[in-house]
Amino acid sequence: SLAETNSLVKDIEPLDLAAECAAVAEAARPLLDEAGICLNLSLDPAPVQGDRQRLRQLLLVLIDNVRRYAAGGKSLRCSTGIREGRPFIAIEDRGPGFPPGVEAHGIELFWRTEPSRARTTGGTGLGLSIARAIAQAHNSDMQIAAGQDGGTIVTILFKTTS
Questions:
Q1: What angle do CA 100, 106, 111 make, to 5 degrees?
Q2: Which of the four pLDDT bands, split at 50, 70 and 90, describes residue 122?
Q3: Which residues lie below 8 Å from residue 56, measured CB to CB, with a gap of 6+?
Q4: How deeply is 126 buried, as exposed, middle or buried, from its count of CB atoms within 10 A (0-12, 13-18, 19+)?
Q5: What are 40's strand-pairing partners?
Q6: How many whole angstroms separate alpha carbon 55 and alpha carbon 58?
Q7: Which residues are within 8 A (CB) of 22 and not within 5 positions of it... i.e. 6 or more apart?
Q8: To which H or E segment does residue 54 belong?
Q9: Residue 96 pLDDT > 50, yes or no?
């Protein structure tokens, strides 16, 4: 509802996505370690204007998605930098990925890849839609793609740096 009223992003300040990713990854490290997921960081400077709290929420949603649904891949790579003049964050896993042709559904409210999942075992289906709303509130694009060697890559491309 905050996204619909343009109230999701409030405190805009200059940030470096690399520093934000490092902070969230370190906070999530104990949970990743417990799940047996190896964390690989490749953090190049990526300056943006953003809401620190919301960007950290976006990162936590994406990292927790890997922990919940792709832990079998044992790997999470978080990278930041500049791509085609645009700051980006990419979260890459080696899990099962989305079934073919359903990448677009992964960001619909309450949609889950496996319909049999109950709320107790499969979450609410809100995670990626929340991440997308935060990205959109930052005038950014969220892309979900299959990894070349399996798994999923979620990339947030921010507007060009000034």
A1: 115
A2: low
A3: 20, 23, 24
A4: middle
A5: 77
A6: 5
A7: 41, 43
A8: helix 52-69
A9: yes
What pLDDT does 121 receive?
Answer: 47
Task: Say whether pTM exceeds 0.90.
Answer: no
**What is the residue whose two structure tokens read 């990526």?**
46
Give per-residue burial for 80-111: e unless 16+ CB within 10 Å, then b: bbbeeebbbbbbbbbbebbeeeebeebbeeee
| Residue range 1-34, pLDDT digits in tens | 343 445 578 899 999 999 999 999 999 999 999 9
Classified as helix, coil or strand, 71 is helix
Q: Give me the pLDDT at residue 123, please.
A: 54
Per the document, the length of the chain is: 162
Among the listed ranges 15-24, 54-63, 77-86, 129-138, which one has the minimum average pLDDT value?
129-138
Pairing of strands 141-146, 86-93: unpaired
Rounded Cα gap, residues 106 and 99, in angstroms: 10
Q: What is the DSSP letter of 109?
A: T
